[in-house]
UniProtKB/TrEMBL annotation:
<keyword id="KW-0539">Nucleus</keyword>
<feature type="region of interest" description="Disordered">
    <location>
        <begin position="312"/>
        <end position="360"/>
    </location>
</feature>
<comment type="similarity">
    <text>Belongs to the nucleosome assembly protein (NAP) family.</text>
</comment>
<feature type="region of interest" description="Disordered">
    <location>
        <begin position="1"/>
        <end position="22"/>
    </location>
</feature>
<dbReference type="Pfam" id="PF00956">
    <property type="entry name" value="NAP"/>
</dbReference>
<feature type="compositionally biased region" description="Acidic residues">
    <location>
        <begin position="312"/>
        <end position="344"/>
    </location>
</feature>
<protein>
    <submittedName>
        <fullName>Nucleosome assembly protein 1-like 4a</fullName>
    </submittedName>
</protein>
<dbReference type="InterPro" id="IPR002164">
    <property type="entry name" value="NAP_family"/>
</dbReference>
<dbReference type="InterPro" id="IPR037231">
    <property type="entry name" value="NAP-like_sf"/>
</dbReference>
<dbReference type="GO" id="GO:0005634">
    <property type="term" value="C:nucleus"/>
</dbReference>
<dbReference type="GO" id="GO:0006334">
    <property type="term" value="P:nucleosome assembly"/>
</dbReference>
Amino acid sequence: MDASKGKGDQGMQNPGGQMDRPVSFHFLESMLPKAVKRRVHALKRLQVQCANIEAKFYEEVHELERKYAALYQPLFDKRRDVVTGTVEPTDEECEWHSDREEEEELAEEVKEKAAIEDAKKEEATPEEDPKGIPEFWLTIFKSVDMLSDMLQEHDEPILKHLKDIQVKFSEPGQPMSFTLEFHFEPNGYFNNAVLTKVYKMKSEPDASDPFSFEGPEIIDCEGCQIDWHKGKDVTVKTIKKKQKHKGRGTVRTVTKQVPNDSFFNFFNPVKALPDGEMDEDSEFTLATDFEIGHFFRERIVPRAVLYFTGEALEDDESFEEEELEEGDEEEQDEEADDDDDEGDFDPKKEQPQPAECKQQ
């Protein structure tokens, strides 16, 4: 799956609504005069050169990302320190103008009443001041659909110990990649201080299909070994199975471990095969993994606080709604076209074919 396209996967543009299938283009080219076809081949060679230049462009973009990652890191380190309670921000650092201030002013009377009630409660019970921002990353995981789908109830106590998530880019001269680092405080589940996931990328046109190049793409990923404490591995579960002896008829109970659903399976990914031959389930699992890795890198890590508060979720939902509205309009237009065509059937006209899925 091309989860990290530099330009996004726009698909084949077809403003005229003609030549829906790739074979139509080959047919068109075969109908050209020989001299024109020769010139088209020359243009294709130029297009390949453009793709190679574009690949170099994205290599420089990757280097630029690495450079600016170093500038962002001190801010992300400060974020981690505030989240974990290592540092208490100053009053000046906590000043923030809210868009809801007018609403808050209108509700001032309600606040005063609430303050009186809170004061009464504080007199009855000692005030508790939580350290940092409790369950910061766990709240994000539970709020984002893509992550909550992987999250199991037995994962939550472990993710309460997650201090930070960082993105590290490959160094100059190394193959293009990025690494997700999950930093944990000491806990009773595993010995690792950091769990890593490396995503390997490619930014060059495919020799067999150079015109499909649209920017860097993730081609493989590699997890890490988790050093679980005894009996704390949530990625497996122990089951007991009864076995009956065929001859004697005696029954014995066998205990064995089987895989268990868990977010921490994220660090033991399906491997991409060199020949590209994978079953459909494995392909889907790997494609989803690439998408999640890209989402961590592009959205979660840079904008963590906005996912914690839910503001980024609102932005994501608005974007999805806009896309849905556009899709609905297109579908309605197609239905209108179908209505216009009813009763005017041309048997020579090619019937529409189902869209062919792009192999990721």
